[in-house]
Amino acid sequence: MASTAVRRESLDRDPRPVVAVTDDAIGLRERRVDARTSRAAVTAAAEQIAALADAYAVVVLRPDNANGHLLDAELTRRLGPGRVVSLLAQVVVDPDHPAFGVSPQPARIVELSTIRSLLAAGLVVSCVGGGIPVAPDRSGRLVEVDGVVDADLTGALLARDLDAQRLLSFGDVQAVADRRFGSTVTAGVGEPAGRVEV
Fold first, then answer.
1. In the chain, domain spans
2. Which of 29, 46, 51, 120 could form a disulfide with 74 if both were Cys (CB 3.0 to 4.6 A apart)?
């Protein structure tokens, strides 16, 4: 799931949102089978994202499951009616790319200008998962294609196209491996595990 944020007072002058991606942090993993634990995870994620929304305009990429919908509801409860807009974005992929398959590489977010406009209006935009994969047909019209776009890849693309200041990833992990140095950076629950430049 993802979220994007921009400082409100500088939105017109410097529209560079912070994008936060949350995935399994609110998902149902094997150890999260009961509704109470799952709801607690959603509440914790919403609390952190709502805090970002106090200072920034936020876009959230969230899973397309029951917990994702609960996250929208919890954000609306915390931020107030009319502050959260759900959006099912189309993501252009290249079906002829050698890597095309079950998880195609996203190339462009069709609704990018809409997301920019919603951010400028001070709304929190909640996008579902990695988006709907689409590709141009022979006439140039975008049509849906098979595949599931990885939400992390869409989050990275969204962050880049929005000139994001930060790409935050909320996940259910205890450590982050830094492949550049072969080291593992650990952090306690609720603490940042570290920052990796990409």
1. 2-89+122-130+150-186
2. 46
For residues 133-167, b (16+ Cβ closer than 10 Å) or e, as one string?
Answer: bbbeeeeeeeeebebebbbbbbbbbbbeebebeeb
Dist CA 84 CA 77 (whole Å): 10
Q: How many CB atoms lie within 10 A of CB 49?
A: 29
Per residue in 120-153, pLDDT (tens digit) is 898 999 998 889 999 999 999 999 998 888 888 8
- Residue 56 backbone phi and psi in degrees, to 5: -130, 160
**Distance (Å) of CA 124 to CA 19, 61, 110, 118, 148:** 11, 11, 18, 8, 24
Can you list the positions of beta strands (E) in 10-131? 18-22, 59-62, 84-87, 90-93, 106-109, 124-128
Pull the structure tokens for residue 56.
């920034």
Mean pLDDT for the chain overall? 76
Instruction: Choose among 81, 82, 78, 11: nearest CA to 49.
Output: 78
pLDDT at 109: 96
Share of the chain above pLDDT 90, in %: 30
